[in-house]
Design brief:
The chain contains 19 helices and no strands. With 424 residues, it is mainly alpha-helical.
Length: 424
């Protein structure tokens, strides 16, 4: 009952966050249409404010949120975990995510929903302290499932990415929490597929067959490059550049916001926000995007991610992949454009997160396109293998190491003075 209760609360939180994120994105879009040049001031100021508030009032709320949950599962002690996953962190994450979307940041709500879900489960799990690692895993999986309305992907994500193993003793916990979160989400929002339904097929043309390895390699290279740069900035640049960024994080966040604003103006506003509307339009074949949408969305997402403001990379990565598939469709006119868009999404997403099973399961569930299952598997596997050549370690686990190391430093600073007092 504890797990089911937690899953239901996570489902409610995910729906409320989704509705609020949609409102924030639409509010910024309306403002950007009326006063396009205003974003050159609004976006940098919003980035600076979000970075400052994150560091001052809500430590460990920055970035995606998934690395914090992974780190919390590897740490011990309620107080230690509470610094990474707590109701205070969750509240700050939600507020600052909305602030980021209100100023046009290229961020998503799915990663933050994972941290919010784990934080809710952590709070409820105080009634069962020995099961905290399993509860964190269940909360993260439930958050992912409710955010995308993809229950299978939520389960696979928990096994493949969060725990990196299958544990029989936690499988029931994950299943119960995901079911509860899914039922809650469905009762509040109804049944839907994230990107709608498509029946795109590749066909037997040589261009369609060539598209799978081509998009797999391109998606892996670009996704691996994105992850490597983000990991590098998160760990701290070497030399004077790294020292400068460490001393001046808020001005750097403002510079990142300015880069996002410029990309937004160059794309006629297409790269602002999550990228959901643009990706859905490409999947459905109902709307067009600028030719440079894919590269500009990648740059805007990278700038948003290295700035340190709270926000995820799931939805923006899928949008970048959709733009990549759309660009390749121009080179391969004999292949169905919608099919290439979906393949680009899974290839790039797999390259970024290096979780190939999660990537093709989540894209399949979000498009309800079962005719492309085998090509999606192949593109995801190629993207994963190619990404490994550029970035040997998965982004979330690499970033989680930083939080584990920071907790070790925090512990040493608090234990040593106490030890000194005891000796004296």
């Amino acid at each position: 009952m504890l797990f089911v209760l937690g899953g239901g609360v996570v489902g409610v939180a995910a729906v409320l966050l989704a509705l609020a994120a949609d409102w924030a994105g639409e509010a910024f879009e309306a403002l950007a249409r009326r006063m396009p040049l205003a974003v050159l001031a609004l976006t940098p100021l919003g980035f600076a404010a979000s970075c400052w508030m994150s560091r001052r009032y809500f430590p460990n709320s920055g970035g995606s949120g998934i690395p914090q949950v992974i780190a919390a599962r590897h740490l011990h002690g309620l107080a230690t975990r509470e610094r990474l996953v707590s109701l205070r962190v969750a509240a700050g994450k939600m507020v600052l995510l909305l602030l980021g979307l209100l100023c046009g940041a290229s961020i998503g709500r799915e990663g933050p929903t994972v941290q919010v879900g784990a934080s809710i489960m952590f709070a409820i799990g105080r009634l069962s302290p020995r099961r905290q690692p399993g509860l964190l895993l269940a909360g993260a999986s439930a958050g992912m499932a409710a955010a995308f309305n993809t229950p299978l992907a939520g389960i696979v994500f928990g096994i493949e990415e969060m725990s990196r193993s299958f544990e029989a003793r936690t499988s029931g916990i994950i299943l119960g929490a995901v079911i509860a979160a899914g039922v809650t989400s469905l009762s509040l929002q109804g049944d839907y597929t994230y990107f709608g339904t498509t029946r795109a097929v590749l066909g037997g043309t040589w261009q369609g067959l060539l598209a799978v390895p081509l998009l797999g390699v391109l998606g892996g290279l670009l996704g691996g490059g994105f992850s490597r740069v983000l990991i590098l900035f998160a760990a701290g640049l070497p030399g004077r550049a790294g020292a400068f960024l460490a001393r001046h994080p808020v001005p750097f966040a403002a510079l990142c916001g300015l880069a996002v604003a410029v990309c937004g103006l160059l794309s006629d506003g297409a790269v602002f926000g999550t990228g959901y509307a643009q990706a859905r339009g490409l999947v459905q074949g109902t709307s067009a995007v600028p030719d440079a949408f894919g590269p500009l969305k990648l740059i805007a997402t990278l700038a948003s991610s290295i700035s340190g403001i709270p926000g995820g990379i799931f939805a923006p990565s899928l949008a970048v992949g959709a733009g990549l598939g759309n660009s390749v469709s121009v080179l391969l006119p004999g292949a169905p454009a919608q099919a290439l868009v979906v393949l680009g999404m899974v290839a790039y997403f797999s390259g970024v997160v290096q979780a190939p099973i999660t990537a093709f399961v989540i894209v399949t569930e979000m498009t309800n396109d079962h005719a492309l299952v085998v090509p999606l598997m192949l593109a995801s596997a190629i993207g994963f293998a190619t990404s490994k050549l550029v970035c040997p370690e998965g982004i979330y686990h690499a970033l989680a190491r930083n939080f584990v190391a920071a907790e070790a430093v925090h512990r040493s600073r608090t234990v040593e003075p106490l030890a000194g007092q005891a000796i004296s």
